[in-house]
Amino acid sequence: MEYTLVSTLVFKWHPVKRVEKGTVAMPEGQDIILYTPKLTPFLMVFAVLCLSMGVGLPFLAEWQLSPLGVSLFLIAAGVWFGPVTVWQRMHYPILQINAEGIYSQSQLLRWEEIDAIYRINTKNGGVFAVDISPNGVIAFFARQGKSLPRSKDMTGPQLALGLPGVRLPLPVDDVLVLIRERFSTEIERYHIDCPIY
Questions:
Q1: How far apart are CA 14 and CA 53, in angstroms?
Q2: What is the DSSP string of 29-62?
Q3: Dihedrals φ, ψ of 85, to 5°?
Q4: How many C-beta atoms surround the C-beta of residue 178 within 10 A?
């Protein structure tokens, strides 16, 4: 796996320019920014099928009104799952880790809220997982301006983030090593369990 250093300023949670040679952008400083490595073949096949059926359906149905609506829907789905999804995956990181915490899928988990960062073993490979502490759950919901759900179990840490390893450009173990190396101060300060396998 090839790592490329980037000397681009990273503003608070704004994506940086994608590096041509790889899917890992590491600006000067401690920030770790990971992009999805590639589009899954299923999505590409689905997009091509939707586009081809959307274009061909009006000709097969002799330009009747109801197939035209289905055709427009299929073309829109093909465009969304094809070029739009590729553009989003190229320009928006799947995982950002900086001095504030871990940001993924439009949610920020602050270092003080995190209890553990680890790998979950599954039959399909590893999963990058982040647990938040009971106090972290309360702080997270308070920061969101939401009340804590009554059904929430507050006796132990809660899984807050789980990213399958196939969505990361590096193996989960390498991501854990990077976090441990670059954010050892935060891990020690907040007593975060971050094992290296």
A1: 37
A2: SS-EEE------HHHHHHHHHHHHHHHHHHHHTT
A3: -65, -40
A4: 18
Rounded to two decimals, the pTM is 0.69
Distance CA 106, CA 9 (A): 20
pLDDT digits (tens, 9 = 90+) for 146-185: 888 887 778 889 999 999 998 888 899 999 999 999 999 9
Dihedral sign for Cα atoms in the order 170, 173, 174, 180: positive
Residue whose C-alpha is closest to residue 161's, from 79, 95, 112: 95
Strands 107-110, 101-104: parallel, antiparallel or unpaired by DSSP?
antiparallel
Burial 113-150 (b: 16+ CB within 10 A, else e): bbbbbbbeeeeeebbbbbbbbeebbeebeeeeeeeeee
